[in-house]
Amino acid sequence: MVQTIPSGCVHLVFHRGENLNIQSKGLQPKNFIRGQFSTYGSLISEGNIDMIAVIFHPLGLNPFVRCAMSELYNHFSAEKVVRVSYVKNTRTFYLF
Q1: One Pfam family of this protein, by short name (predicted)?
Q2: Of 33, 45, 48, 62, which is most buried by a Cβ count within 10 Å?
Q3: Cα torsion 8, 9, 10, 13: sign
Q4: Cα separation, 57 vs 42, whole angstroms
């Protein structure tokens, strides 16, 4: 078990191996955006862990998503990863 601390940053996570289990919230989705957290957490790994994580500076994800950061506060969302709009040239990139 690994203890996490709230960082104030948004994470974009892609699990390539087994998903991690968050002790109070259950199994993480395969790919997700994790908002800012205000509490500590406990991660439990089961099996082979292989992941890619992008950690954005505060407000660093804003140019890429069309939702308020308050929608991601204290939870993670797999739905927001499916379609990410890039505002500068109005193209849409699909991550899956």
Answers
A1: DUF6597
A2: 33
A3: negative
A4: 22
What domain range is 80 assigned to?
A: 2-94
Average pLDDT rounded to a whole number, residues 27-55? 84
pTM of the model: 0.69
- The single-letter DSSP state of residue 17 is S
The SS3 call for residue 29 is coil
Side chain identity at residue 86, one-letter code: Y
Residue 35: closest CA among 78, 1, 2: 78
CA distance 61 to 10: 7
Token readout for 4 is 């996490």
Tokens of 82: 């499916």
**How far separated are the first and last CA of the chain, in Å rounded?**
30
Quote the pLDDT of residue 93. Answer: 44
